[in-house]
Amino acid sequence: MLLALGAAVAFVAVWQYLGLLLSTFIFLVGVVVYHLVFHTRWCYIAIKTAPRDLRALWCYVKVLLLAWRCSRNNLTVPDIFHEVVQRNPNKTCFYFQDEVWSFKEVEEYSLRVTAVLKNQGIKKGQIVGLLTNNCPQMPALWLGAARLGAICPLINTNQRGNALIHSVTVAKCDALIFSDEYLSAFQEVSGQLDPKIKAFKFTQRPLNSPKPEKASGDGIPDFADLVASTSPAPWTKADGYGFQGKLLYIYTSGTTGLPKAAVITNSRFIFMVSGMQHMRLNSSDVVYCPLPLYHTAGGIVSVGQALIFGCTVILKPKFSASQYFPDCAKYKATAAHYIGEMCRYILATPPSPADKQHNVRVVFGNGLRPQIWTEFVTRFNIKYVTEFYGATEGNANIANTDGTPGAIGFVSRIFPSVYPIAIIKVDQETGEPIRDAQGLCQVAGPDEPGVFIGKISPNNPSREYHGYVDKAASDKKVVRDVFSHGDSAFISGDILVADEFGYLYFRDRTGDTFRWRGENVSTSEVEAAISRVADHRDAVVYGVLVPNTEGRAGMCGIVDHNGSLDLEKLAKDLARDLPPYARPVFVRVMNSMDMTGTFKMKKTDLQKEGFDPNLTKGDKLYFLDLKQNKYIPLGLEEPVCVPSGPFGDQLFAHVHLASEGFIDAASGWAHVLGAFRKRHSQPTDARMDALLAALVALMALAAAMAAVLSTLSKAAIFAILAIAPCVYRYRKRIYVIVKTLPRDIKFLWRYANAMIRTAKYARNNTSVAELFTQRALKQPDAPCFFVVGDRTWTFREMAENSNRVSRVMQEQLGLKRGDVVCVFMPNCAEFVYTWLGMAKLGVVSALINSNLRHKPLLHCIQVANAKAIVYSECLAGAIKEIKDELPADIKRFQLYGESAPGVTDLRAEMDKQSPDYPEVADKPQYNDTLLYIYTSGTTGMPKAAVMKNSKYLIVVVATVHMLGLNSKDRMYNPLPLYHLAGGLVGTAAAVVDGIPSVLRTKFSASNYWTDCIKYECTVAQYIGEMCRYLLAQPPKPTDTQHRVRIMVGNGMRPAIWQQIVDRFKVPQINEIYGATEGNANIINVDNTVGAVGFLPKLVPTSLHPIALVKIDEAGNVIRGADGYCIRCQPNEPGMFIGLISQRNAARAYHGYVDKSASKTKVEKDVFTKGDAAFVSGDILVADELGYLFFRDRTGDTYKWKGENVATAEVEDALGSVLDRRDCVVYGVSIPQTEGRAGMAAIADPALSLDLAQLAAHVDHSLPSYARPLFLRITKDIEITSTFKLKKIQYQKEGFDPDVIKDPLYFRSGAEFVPVTTQLFTDICNGKVKL
Q1: How far apart are CA 683 and CA 817, in angstroms?
Q2: Tally of CB atoms within 10 A around 1096
Q3: First vs last Cα of the chain: how many Å apart?
Q4: What pLDDT shows up at residue 1284?
Q5: 1204-1213 b/e (C-beta count within 10 Å ≥ 16 → b)
Q6: Helix (H, G, I), strand (E, B) or coil at 538
Q7: DSSP alpha helices (H): ranges in 96-153?
Q8: What is the recorded membrane topology of this protein (predicted)?
């Protein structure tokens, strides 16, 4: 103050002496010299930034002049648009696909809309909601409404359920116009909306296209038809509230999770549009806009360039990275709009000449990350980039006017008060402004992070604040007493930092708000949603950094004391109540949470720990898989226990107690304590001192007792003190052993009994046929098989019929031991007695899948090198189709029905034979091959897995003993008999042990429990898909009126396991896992939910015949420095393998008939030189208790419909019809569906592929389970050495049309149909049959 007063006095004195002009000159020179001497850096900055600031100031002045003109004339957006139309009636306003809309046509359409709405009773101030796709009609719709003074909320088209209801309700809509493709979304919520709302669907059709002849029949008026049949209203000035009146509501996540309607007035619309126009655009520009028009960026900033300034705007239905610059070239765009994520996707496209064959001179938008800024500009030859920043509901809008990489705008260092924005200091923990002693906010210094604010000044379009429709929500975004008492400012919630030149850079979101996927996410709203759907558990939500990803991913810490949290239900409920960007990506399940006044500090700690399993203190971590819509375990699922005391492991690592007496033990303790104190020489806290004192007292007490106690007592004390440290050191291992002891003892006891029994079979060289004959002689009239809907077969009948089959084969073909016959039948007792008849001769039966036709069927017969094929009457047609391609010497036998010429009637021939056991010179042996069971294995065409008598008996004995079956049990078997589960597990107990089996021709969910009741079954078989179908049945009394005590099978998902138990009251579920061709078979013996088996903890790891080993991303085994495989640690996924020992029937590996295929499933030098293991191809994970859980298939093999599918074989099958087009096949996950569905990506840049021909070829060449369900037509596929990585990327992208911009198709019936967003949703929701 004194300096200013002195300068003023000096100026007046000089003025009096030298005159005004010279005095002024001298004064200015003095000011300059003062600043150059005392504020050199500021002068440098001012000179450096003057061009930027002056250019921005000139733009700002032009914006204010336009605003002043519009305010003086009280103009609205429709009024200004009319002026533009008058100047350029025939100029193109919008390009949209192949449509061209002139300014005159847009206004005429909007006038028709005005007339329609007026006829429907819409008046000034009423609300007309729009839920419409990008199209030229969308801005015309709200222009027409605005002319009546109505306000249009632009509703996000991705909203469904509660979010959609909220959006319509919070805006208080009087009418709603929605695109016809959102009819189902509207119908889902219509019952919860105000019935007074007038609903109109809108069918988007090209301009001037004829009205369809037939109505849709849904009873909802089509607004497009009304517009087409209504004459335009005469033009008048808008009957609204003028320049300051409300124009639109645009929904933004703001500071709460549910959408909020931000108020857009005419003045704010004009300010935002003109601000961008005067930066780098002009009225002759053609603007490319692929952004959604319900958001500020696309719907105002881009579209507004046409409505306010007469630019031509190119609209796109959806963004496409590959078409971005080709579109710009096609339409001759000179400016293009982006958001940051788009730029990443565009850069990810392969370089092409189109990258620079365009006329775009400026791109504008927000979110272009500094890391890719320069690369983007250089690659696509962009002259100017205008990055802008602002909140839809706020008044703080800035722009980067000079293309400084990474900057989102600036604060002028020369005249900061002209545009009053600032960065103020905030508490890093709470996000609250830090105030000085006067209670005012403090401005952050250069390079100091702070929250971005904009001072509020009513009646100034650049500084006014309208907030949300919800006034309470608006008030939360205002901070008061900012720089003077009584003033106020909009607080953005974003952390920015300004460098010394005033350039602003985005850093993060503050407090309880973070940004993800371009949206603001409120932790409080998400917490409320989680608490509501998770039984009001305590939950805390925060954002965590994910490397190389923009923004912060949502993470939730949730309390679950008793392990009852249902994460699958949580994911499903959150998908209903929260938009995708607001759903927590990570979940951390905790035992407790501090909810005191220091809770926010706790949240900060959780945020710092993130989702790193090494930092989360043993809490369980889960990751949201959006494709499956479920939370899957991430990293360590169980706490990793380390000694929790102040000594930790270091205390007990040095305990070496002597064996000579108590005194030596005490000396050992003293040595440990001294060593510990020496290694930790810093001052100890009170707790450590207390613990040391307690230990010294304990030793003193022990020494005193030693003086008076007997030798025996001394020995006992010594033993306790010697063992105690070891118990503590290995307490986790001891806990695991104690916990798993009952399970392991039960398993080992049953396993031992099974091995004793199989050793007896091996010693006596017993075959399956011999055991069956013994069983039939022992209980001839006992039931062997019950066939649902047919009859009961006794052991006598099964034996006699099998004997007759043997005799026919001897007489007709002279079959001998080692020959092969194919058996091709549906489920029936005849199927079993046929192969039993072959077995008595030592003939191998190849059991063929009864669903196979054409090439796969022929392949199965040929690969078996069969002498004959036996088939049922119902499958005669399938054989007839391929008879001309069968080997000439193969004999055909038909069971039942009229046989075709050249086919032997097996039943008639059997009737001629004696029922006595055939005379066999060369009897079958224990190690002879019994069956071929076909499995897709590691190639797409079926492969014949070798099933020897020895393995058959191992399986049956293991099944009976592990399940605890007895002679009173009866097994229900609705599974196909040509597979391992149905044909061996389901029937072997009857064949060998006399436990009857109930056969059903085909599985029926509605009859499952009815059959079990009717036939008094105590054991029932399943596969995972069956369980889903059972649960889908309406509840009925038969659900619990059965006697089933055991369900056995494979593929029951953990999510439905407990539901099966609870609903059907089945006390025991035994999940089995194993490969038909392999030797690694395991079983869940104790009902642990989700487990497919376990690794016994009583047996040393080195002795386990099964193991999990580490693999890389491509599915290849990872080897250590010693060249051997590396065992996985608990909770670490790995490849499941079975060590091979040909001398042990349980560990022998016989593989396939095709020896080369067998070798591909073997890994050598696994843990020692010369050993070998069967490689399953499955990813499993073992928890700390040894329980094994199935995760996925590896490499080029996936599982679908219970079958293994090889991508290589499917690619080969497709190749013959693709005319040398590149093709890659992979499996994709479908939510709530087991396995992976086949998908093929095909390079077809010309889009000339005949999909109908492809479908027909696939049907002829591949079995049904191997046929691709989805197609992706791409421009090219890179076939390099890193091709597998590309395949993995395709697999991750799945079949989501919102993620993939390539054409997608779905196999529906006999043809491939395009995958729309609605079809994708229906598939994911289980509404489409797969």
Answers
A1: 84
A2: 18
A3: 82
A4: 36
A5: bbbbebbbbb
A6: coil
A7: 103-119, 137-147
A8: Multi-pass membrane protein
What's the pLDDT score for residue 26? 61
Residue 859 neighbours by CB under 8 Å, 6+ apart: 941, 942
DSSP letter string, 539-583: EEEEEEE-TT-SSEEEEEEEE-SSS---HHHHHHHHHHHS-GGGS
- Note every long-range contact of 775-784, with CB atoms under 8 Å and residues 24 or more positions apart, other chains counting: 775/991, 775/992, 775/993, 775/994, 778/994, 779/994, 782/994, 782/996, 783/996, 784/829, 784/990, 784/991, 784/994, 784/996, 784/997
Tell me phi and psi for residue 219, to 5 degrees.
80, 5
Distance of CA 861 to the CA centre of its chain: 41
Contacting residues for 257 by C-beta, under 8 A, at least 6 apart? 521, 522, 524, 525, 526, 528, 529, 578, 579, 582
SS3 at position 673: helix
**Is the pLDDT higher at 986 or at 549?**
986
DSSP letter at 1279?
-
**Residue 1175 near residue 1163 (C-beta atoms within 8 A):** yes
DSSP class of 804: H
> What value, to the nearest 5°, has the Cα angle with vertex 817 and ends 813 and 821?
55
Q: Please, what's the b/e burial string for 282-294 (b: 16 or more CB within 10 A of its CB; e: otherwise)? A: ebebbbbbbbbbb
**Distance in angstroms (rounded) separating the CA atoms of residues 1144 and 1136:** 19
Q: How far is CA 659 from the centre of its chain?
A: 59
Asked whether 163 and 218 are in contact (CB, 8 A), the reply is no
CA angle 481, 484, 487 (to 5 degrees): 55
3-state secondary structure of 462: coil
3-state secondary structure (DSSP) of residue 819: coil
Q: How many other CB atoms sit within 10 Å of the CB of residue 158?
A: 15
Residues belonging to the chain: 1330
- Among 86-100, 491-505, 1181-1195, the range with the most confident prediction by mean pLDDT is 86-100
Token code pair at residue 566: 């249902």
Rounded Cα–Cα distance for residues 554 and 583 (Å) = 7
Where does 132-171 show beta strands of DSSP type E? 152-154
What is the C-alpha to C-alpha distance for residues 609 and 604, in angstroms, rounded to an integer?
Answer: 9
Q: What is the overall mean pLDDT for the chain?
A: 83
Q: How far apart are CA 292 and CA 1, in angstroms?
A: 55
Q: Which helix (H) or strand (E) holds 946?
A: strand 943-948
Residue 313 pairs in a beta bridge with 94, 287
DSSP letter at 765?
T
Using DSSP's 3-state secondary structure scheme, residue 196 falls into coil
User: In the Cβ-directed half-sphere of 423, how many Cα atoms lie within 13 Å?
Assistant: 26
Q: Count Cβ neighbours within 10 Å for each residue of 4-22 and write b for 16 or more, e otherwise.
A: eeeeeeebeebbeeeeeee
What pLDDT does 403 receive?
87
Residue 120 has what DSSP assignment?
Answer: T
Q: How many helices (H) and strands (E) are present in the chain, helices listed first?
A: 41, 55
CA separation, residue 620 to residues 21, 560, 588, 607, 720 (Å): 79, 10, 6, 15, 35
- The strand pair at 1134-1139 and 1172-1182 is best described as antiparallel
Lookup result for tokens 């419909």: 1201
Residue 1188: helix, strand or coil by DSSP? strand
H-helix or E-strand spanning residue 860:
helix 854-864
- For residue 855, what are its two tokens? 């090439």
In angstroms, the CA 698 to CA 707 distance is 15
Q: What value does the mean pLDDT take over residues 70-89?
A: 93
Spatial contact of 1178 and 1078, defined as CB atoms under 8 Å apart? no
Both tokens of 1015, joined, read 């036939």
What DSSP designation does 433 have? B
Q: Which residues does 1041 contact at the CB level (< 8 Å), separation at least 6?
A: 1009, 1013
DSSP 8-state symbol, 453: E
Token pair 């208080």 is found at 172
User: Around Cβ 402, how many Cβ atoms within 10 Å?
Assistant: 17
Strands 335-339 and 286-289: parallel
